[in-house]
Amino acid sequence: MNTTTAPSRIKVITGNAAAAIGAKLARPDVVAAYPITPQTEVIEQISTFHASGEMDCELITVEGENSAMNAVMAASLAGGRVFTASSSWGLVFMYDAVLAVAGARAPVVMVNVNRETPGIIAVSSGQQDMISTRDAGWIFLIAEDCQEVLDLVLQAYRLAEDHDIQLPVMVHYDGFFLSYLSEGVDIPEQETVDRFLSVLDDQPRRTALTPGQKLGVGSHGILGGYMELRHKHVTAMERSKDKFEEIDKEFAGIFGRPYGGQLEEYRTDDADIVLVGSGSMCGTIKSVIDDQREKGMRIGLVKIRMYRPFPHQALVAALKGKKGVGVVDRSLAFGFEGGPIYTELKAFETRLDGTQLISFIDGIANTDITKTNVEKMIQMTRDLADGKDVPEVTWVSYPEANTKGEK
Amino acid sequence: MAEKKQGRLTKVLDYLKHDDPFSKGVAFCPGCGLELLLRFIPRVLGNDIVITGTPSCSAPVLLGQNNQSWHTLSYFGTLMTGAAANATGLVRYYRKAGIDNTVVCFNGDGTANDIGFGNLSGAAERNEPFIYICYDNEGYMNTGIQKSGTTPFGATTTTTPYGSVHKGKNLRRMNLGLKMAMNKIPYTATATLSDLEDLAKKLLKAKEAKERGFCFLHVFAPCPTGWGADPADTIEICRRAVKTNYFPLWEAENGRIRMTKTVKKPKSVNTYTELMKKFHHMTEADMKVLQDDVEYEYCLLGGLSVLEAECQLPVSVKDQGDAS
Amino acid sequence: MSSNHYFKHEGPWSDAGDPLMCTDTGDWRTKRPVVDKDKCIFCGFCAIYCPIQVMEMQADTHFEANLDFCKGCGICAKECPKDAITMISEGEFVS
After folding, report:
1. Residue range(s) defining the domain that contains residue C75
2. N or C: which terminus of chain A carries fewer CB neighbours within 10 A?
């Protein structure tokens, strides 16, 4: 058990409440609020904090998510710290502004409570909304449990507003499985958070839209100018990998909770089979790994915390030489057979020194990724490592998809 | 018989207290109503306004190119879908940070009435403290003259062209100003370029009223290129729009409508449409539809303004809450 | 690392502290306004209605167009209450 260096208190709260408290502790100037299941409690909590005076911010109860992102984009470019929250359809409704925020390099921080974005109305779990927006140019971080939701919100502000980075950050956490789940969360003291974030005050001020200063934002990039902007964006994203590692270490030192940076490697050192996952499924996977370890299985988990930029260097280092790797996706990659994270990782397969990858699709449409499912995934990955014939893609909870011969 | 040098300089010049922040050589069509309006606003309101602009005819001038600008104003170039929401974010942050500001959210009719209407409505409902100016050239002009929600009945555009089956727009235009006034916002007004003193006064009134919340100005700005008019006629078109009651001039403080110019003997709308090719295909029956519609709207406005005068609505009621 | 060649800032900011851009719009016109000084009553209508505001006061006697930027729209001629302005084809001025 780590001893914390900073005073705090533990409360049993939901993931949504943890996000709201994280935002409150960060002291944003402007918050935009629009409800959508399963995020609604986040903005309800913030509204309560605002009404009681606990949160001294401008709360804009917008008439749609598109306005929510547009409002926080402008407030951010005017120099303010901002926050908003959304999910699935709300996220894609604000998508034009999401792209504009990234292109304008506005350090917006938001939480996205993962929910499906199917062609039909489905109020159910899945990371499809994250996958639908992965090319926006934002930094994407994923939380495993309610504690990490709060912690990632705080880390997100340090990352987004860092003068070297200036990129928007979206913290994802599973709707239904984390949003409504109550867990014990260690809530840091305001003073400690202020100290953690005050590092930003010592950095140069970013460019801000102020009346009378003859600066304008939203200028057209023409030819070389456009390419220069895009190159700056791409290089900033690359820099954010190391920056996130630094921030995570600093966070561990102050708050006593080390997470491992871009990835958390759980019992992977001597593992020959590894599962790669993200979000709340990792809790279950870790629990099964512990069981299997007791039986002598050398198995580990690589948990992806930073999904964008894609941490390929860290993943290659963690997975190189493993006998079998099963990538668990809680979403689909249309146009590909395997899941999205699997497909992205596969691009680096040649750097893995012979490690083989297979894809598991599970946990969509409110299906639980149960311990039994995880055991099945581990068994199949074991079979892969043993050289047996294993399908490349398996829909763990929907056997109809796995009929041999149908592609 | 006036002596040759007796003329007095127009009073409008007194309102142009500030410098023109725009470069002299900018890409607006000759005779563009928008150009006149865009230069006019900061000369009246000051060069320290923060102006937001969207893809539109104003974008190539309001927004910069790489590091360079066409003007010295602080600007925010953004998307049509979120213009009023962007302005909301700005004023809320400035309020939090205690920064004095006049934010002008400057949009065409396409943004205001169509694609950006949702957030315009939201900003009005929340009574956000900024000035929203809609320049109405009755169409999406920057993309080459397409129909918008304020394009009038009968007008030809590239999406409502004249063909053997369909002959121009067969729908009436929407009245943006009335929609806004009905929410009792601190200040709503219509204005146009033939009555520049009226426009200047309304701009100044809006600047003062925005301390209390949302202000909306609907400015009629002809597009000679898109309307098939002689560029020299731009101002005359505005004048006739007012004289035929096609575009009446009124203002509303907290929803209390009053006409700022009463036309005693309005001319038939033909005297207005004859100046623009976009109407020239219309039959007599079409013109009657247009005339009836113009009279309907004027009647409505007139009725509301009389009602206001007769009802003597209480002044002490807090008409609109603070955006909070 | 990226360069700051086209943009001075990390994001898409433009800086009006730099010289403003300017197009040679005087090149566009096909006719130019010619003011009859004797008819001009110095009312200023041409100045306020000119979209580019190129009508400049000549002492306090009359107005004249700055031909560097006049686009030749003809509004000044149309609005002048004394018909003191005539639009003359540019062809007349080609030497």
Report:
1. 28-93
2. N
Contacts of C18 in chain A (CB under 8 A): none
Tell me the pTM.
0.94
CB A18 within 8 A of CB A49: no
Is C16 near chain A, with CB under 8 Å?
Answer: yes
Question: If pLDDT is split at 50, 70 and 90, which confidence band does A4 have?
Answer: low
Given a contact cutoff of 8 angstroms between Cβ atoms, the answer to whether A21 and A54 are in contact is no
Determine which of B18, B71, B79, B86 to mutate to test the interface with A (most A C-beta atoms within 10 Å). Answer: B86
Percent of chain B at pLDDT above 70? 94
Task: Find all residues with CB under 8 Å of A276, minimum gap 6, and list them.
Answer: A301, A302, A303, A304, A315, A319, A325, A326, A327, A328, A341, A345
ipTM tops 0.90: yes
Q: Establish if C65 belongs to a structural domain.
A: yes
C6 within some domain: no
- Angle, helix A146-160 to helix A15-26, in steps of 10 degrees: 30
Is the CB of residue B302 less than 8 Å away from at least one CB of chain A?
no
DSSP state of A213: S
The two three-digit tokens of residue C29, written as one number: 């016109």
Looking at CA atoms only, how far is residue C54 from chain A in angstroms? 23
What is d(CA A362, CA A328) in angstroms, rounded to the nearest whole number?
Answer: 7
Structural domain contains residue C52: yes
Q: Looking at the 3D structure of chain C, how many domains does it have?
A: 1
Per CB-CB distance under 8 Å, the chain C contacts of B19 are none
Q: Write down all domains in chain A, each with its CATH number in brackets.
A: 8-255 (3.40.50.970), 263-402 (3.40.50.920)
Sorted by where each begins, the domain ranges of chain B are: 27-311
Contact A130, A172 (CB under 8 A): yes
Nearest to B27 among C23, C50, C77 (CB): C23
Contacts of B7 in chain C (CB under 8 A): 41-43
Q: Per-residue pLDDT for A81 more than 90?
A: yes
Q: Nearest CA to CA, how far is B76 from chain C (Å)?
A: 9
Looking at chain B, which residue has its C-alpha nearest residue C43?
A: B9
For B257-273, the DSSP string reads EEESS--SSPPPTHHHH
Question: Cβ C41–B27 below 8 Å, yes or no?
Answer: no
CATH topology of domain B27-311: Rossmann fold (3.40.50)
Domain CATH for C81: 3.30.70.20
β-sheet bridge partners, residue A272: none
Give the tens place of pLDDT for each residue, A262-300: 999 999 999 999 999 999 999 999 999 999 999 999 999
**Averaged over A239-247, what is the pLDDT?**
98
B93 with A62: Cβ contact below 8 A? no
In a domain, C21, yes or no: no
Alpha-carbon gap: A215 to the closest alpha carbon of chain C (Å) = 5
Distance CA A303, CA B259 (A): 67
- The rounded distance, in Å, linking the Cα atoms of A272 and B202 is 75
A77-103 average pLDDT score: 97
Residue ranges in chain C whose pLDDT is less than 70: 1-2
In chain A, residues with a C-beta closer than 8 Å to the C-beta of B119 are: 62-64, 66-67, 70
Please give the average per-residue pLDDT across A327-338, as a whole number.
Answer: 96
- The alpha-carbon gap from A210 to the nearest alpha carbon of chain B, in Å, equals 7
